């Protein structure tokens, strides 16, 4: 009888594949095991999702190479959730698998090239490139493809390798390497020869005069052992005794000490834990009780609480309840910057029960968290993370908290799977029969609509914690300011006066400008030329710190030109401003103050967020200038002034969400001000102070904004009344793309009786030398979403069959907003 397994490959493929196994393997392998399988002369880590005895009809099943696990590393909940994501977001199951697992668990083979010893070789018949490889194999037993690329100093080495295989000089083999390595700490103990008292006294007496340092180290070891009965690490002993590791090694060589290793977690929060009782205010307690009541009736609840209303304390109280009955809790955040502060707050309450999972952590750290969640370890009862934490192998999930649920960063844009973490979390919770709490001061219109229509529970918290007043918001008319010459650089005199006053009171300031770099445009004042990216249809942004012009889409950069590339004029001027320019202008205005910037350029390192946030919290930094990273849930008790440098930047984007996002961003930034005793102040600089959205922010009128936007969405067929699917087509040939996108649009129009818009050239029509066209499909709520998706998929399949359009890349983005 034949035995088979069904596997997912970590490749962008829509189907699962069948491989054959032996009877003994069939009885050993379980769903969720990883197996190494051959695919076109390479070996990949496949995931077993089913075992059966039905042979494939279209191809002959190959045998697997090896089994990589002793127990499943993925559970049924995850596999079902991945298939739902692949189906709902119209992507390949292989993409979901590749995106879900930490890359250290996705082993891929390295092609190993070795010489065939039995072949007689005439060196004169080899070309120069072939001889270089042959010569390298005389001194090394094997080479990897990357080594050959380095030896030949060229990228196309496969034809040379192919010729050597043909001549029977070399052979290829695939080797899989386990990437995850546990962290082992080197510890030290006294050798068993010296465990008796007499031998120990004899040892100390026998140290000669030249071995004083060794004797001191042995005595220091006994002191440490007397203070604490725990194992003593080599590092701890060397640091305490102020001795080098060479002295420790000498004692090990003499067999006075012996080394041993203990595996240790890379992340440990035990030292953070403090014993303190959490007490909620009356308003918080009322909200907490309402959430509990809502959970008894509905699966999802929205907590709509104003900024600084103490939502985190309510979350902590709920987490206590769930982990008290042995459940796991997932706490999703939109930004890695936010995890820094939240981890500090949660580890105070829960110590080492908290695990953190996001892309700034190393591969090995992420594998450790994965394994802790998989084994339902005490160390991962509460998992804090960005959207990727959704893929962890939970088996006992009780609660998912999605904080700042309105944030667009919860939606993955590239690469596939293009999922929305908030919506996917609700589906995952449903599978676990868990509850979902969505929290925000400015909920997304879809979420608030679901809460108003009774689909979700709704709990509101309208007062700030500790009876703190909402900040005073003052508008500064930039038109009037420029007319009256009351603007210095990009600062109005009102803003400068308020910053000066804050400094006089030893208070801190946050300035918000949602654009990084020094200036978005460098223009020649003689001929009007603006340097453009050669690969994208976008101007290059000037970064003064590195004195270069850089493209924020493809990363292309050039040194700042000294004269115009077209007319050679030296009269070059920057237009517009970013965070870097604000930082430099501020340093000129207040030279004695410590000013720091928080944007993508300054937070590339692993601990860069922590350094900036801790420095600001400890009042070492006076002013923090930043982009939208600052707008999300950060808590600083000494900030009394927030300045929004230019509110109009956000309002006029070609996006149906522009007004909603502007309201959310400004309200959230304003909420960073006055979170302690003193009332905060917010200064919004704008050319249009009478704009509806700016007035709604000033009056903290979320309801007004919601009703106005909902009315417009209904008229123009946008969410929450319609679902949106965006098709993006890319190709290097402009004409072929134009023709292909029109073909696709016409076929979709014929097969769908719903609005299909396009093909449209987006605001930036070319990125990385590929031209772009988009088609938007609007699906009314009463129309079957699944049926429409099936039709779209059929049309895309037939588009793929047309030979002249096969090279056009099509990506599907469901609910792309």
Q: Mind explaining what this structure looks like?
A:
- The chain is an alpha/beta fold and 817 residues long.
- It has 7 domains: 3-105, 3-Layer(aba) Sandwich (GIY-YIG endonuclease), CATH 3.40.1440.60; 110-175; 183-264; 276-413 and 420-467, 3-Layer(aba) Sandwich (Rossmann fold); 472-516 and 579-711, P-loop containing nucleotide triphosphate hydrolases (Rossmann fold); 519-576, no CATH class; 722-814, Alpha-Beta Plaits (2-Layer Sandwich).
- Helix content is 35%, strand content 23%.
- The strands form 9 sheets. Strands 14-15-13-16-17-12-18 form a 7-stranded parallel beta sheet, sandwiched between helices.
- Helix 11 (282-297) crosses helix 12 and helix 25 (734-751) crosses helix 26 (785-801).
- It is globular.
